[in-house]
Amino acid sequence: MKITAEQVRYVADLANLHLTDDEVRKFQADLDEILVHLDRLNEVDTSRSEPMAQVLYEAEETATLRPDRSRPGLGTELALANAPAAGSGYFKVPEVIKR
């Protein structure tokens, strides 16, 4: 396998997940299978393909993005108007990550 159990535990720790040994083995196999598929994609000959920096066509009539335009922001008071809890100009939320 390309992915070690230690790597799975490291990524799980970054995501603040606590995995059992069975879950580590399952994710190790799943992630390894993903890497096998990526290796297959790397075998595709792309030498005659032009690199793409933008997926949109350059023609104006087929462009799907609207033009940028400046407009005023909401402001703190309006942004916090419907907040369930607010204070000192910020949203108040319950603590999510405890370490």
Short description:
It is built from three helices and two strands.
The first-to-last residue Cα distance is: 31 Å
Broad CATH class of one domain: Mainly Alpha
CATH domain fold name of one domain: Histone, subunit A
The class by helix and strand makeup works out as mainly alpha
What is the radius of gyration computed over CA atoms, rounded to a whole number of angstroms?
A: 24 Å
Order of strands across the biggest sheet? 1-2
- Helix and strand succession? HHHEE
Q: What are the low-pLDDT stretches, counting only 5+ consecutive residues below 50?
A: none
- Give the name of the CATH architecture of one domain: Orthogonal Bundle
Question: What global shape is seen?
Answer: flat
Count of alpha and pi helical runs:
3
Q: What summary fits the major beta sheet?
A: 2 strands, antiparallel
Q: Bin the strand percentage.
A: under 5%
CATH superfamily of one domain: Glu-tRNAGln amidotransferase C subunit, N-terminal domain
Helix content: 25-40%
* Average pLDDT number: 87
Count every beta strand, where a strand is a DSSP E run of 2 or more residues. 2
